[in-house]
Structures are given as C-alpha cells and as structure tokens.
Design goal:
This protein starts with a strand and ends in a 15-residue tail after the last helix. It has a single domain, classed as Roll (Ubiquitin-like (UB roll)). It is 46% helix and 13% strand. α4 runs antiparallel to α5. By secondary structure, it is of the alpha+beta class. It has 8 helices and 5 strands. β1 and β2 form a beta hairpin. The chain has a 5-stranded mixed β-sheet with strand order 2-1-5-3-4.
Length: 193
C-alpha cells in the first residue's frame, strides 16, 4: 500500500510500516541522521504538523531523549516514527526547521525584523541543547543498557550508505538553492533508516 507523506512541504511515496527517516533519506530530504535508526543521535527529530494518529505511539527511546515539552509540541524522532495508517502525514524536520529559521534571521521576510525572527531560532537551539547536554548523562546510561557500549560508541553499521545519503542530500540542497533541480530518488530498500 502506497501512502503519501509530506516532509518539508514535499509529498513522497511511502509504505505502510516504513519509518519517516527511511522515506526522507530515500528522497534526499533535508534530515539529520547518524545512528542508523538506533534513536541515539536525535538528529532526525521532526515536528509532526498533522497525521500524528497515522503514526505509531512514541517509543521508550523517544521518551528517553525528547523532553515532555518537545513531545507536547509534536516533536518525534524520524527513526522511531512508523507509518501505521493510510492517512496523510505532514512533518517538518528539525534540520529544515532550523535552516528556515536561520534564513528568516539572515533575510527577514517582509513585515518582520531580525530580532523577532531570532527568538524562535534561539529557543529551538536552547531546547535541542538541553535535550543533549542537560539530559546526556542519564540518557547515555539508558542507551548503553539498551544498545550496548559498542553501538553507542560507533552506531554506524553501513558507512557507505551514510556517506551516500549525506552526499545526495547535500547535492540536493545545493541544487535547490541554485535552481538547477534535485537528484533522483534512491531505490527503495529494506528499512535501514
């Protein structure tokens, strides 16, 4: 069953049960990733704009890494979100959200100022840093218990896949910014996220 998922204002095809991170990576969407879907790096954090009822419930991993405030605002980890319903889902990745916030500071949209556009960016940076720095010691121990020391120290299982997707996303961002288009989608594979 093909499901439509909107990531960063772009509609993509997905499969029932597929993780949002896998959909984003396959389509070279602007999303962070490093830990191969282990829920360790939180770089794939997304804000669910609509369709939360079409996703699995937040996982223990998400409750470990994301503050209750972030979760109440709709933030989830792309590597932990699985498509469980056929309805539409809309998400904005943290990477894209922060890129847009920075763009609004550097080139304020008409009717806005640098200082008013700076507030959301700084609030987002503070929230993300608190997730990592303020909660790190306890979360590190929880992650080591869940994943093992080796996976925590080196979560990458397929370095070529990591590098390939990083290059594809970077090229796509550069192509979109200069108007030359976007690279083609990587063929669907098993869901390594």
């Amino acid at each position: 069953m093909v499901i439509k998922v909107e990531i960063n204002d772009e509609v993509m095809d997905a499969q029932l049960g597929e993780r949002v991170l896998a959909v984003a990576r396959r389509n070279a969407s602007h999303i962070g990733f490093y830990c191969d879907g282990n829920g360790l790096c939180t770089m794939c954090e997304c804000k669910v704009l609509s369709g939360a009822d079409q996703l699995n419930e937040p996982t223990e991993t998400e409750h470990t890494w994301l503050t209750e405030e972030r979760m109440a605002e709709g933030y989830r980890l792309g590597c932990q979100m699985s498509l469980r319903g056929a309805g539409s889902v809309r998400v904005l990745t943290r990477a894209e959200e922060m890129r847009r916030q920075l763009d609004a500071v550097l080139s304020p949209p008409p009717g806005t100022t640098v200082s008013e556009n700076m507030r959301p960016l700084l609030a987002n940076i503070a929230a993300v840093n608190w997730q990592h720095i303020g909660r790190w010691p306890a979360n590190l121990l929880t992650s080591m218990s869940r994943l093992g020391l080796f996976t925590v120290l080196w979560p990458v299982t397929d370095l070529n896949h990591l590098l390939d997707d990083t290059v594809r996303i970077t090229r796509r961002l550069l192509a979109v910014s200069d108007g030359s288009g976007a690279p083609e989608e990587r063929p669907a594979a098993s869901d390594p996220a």
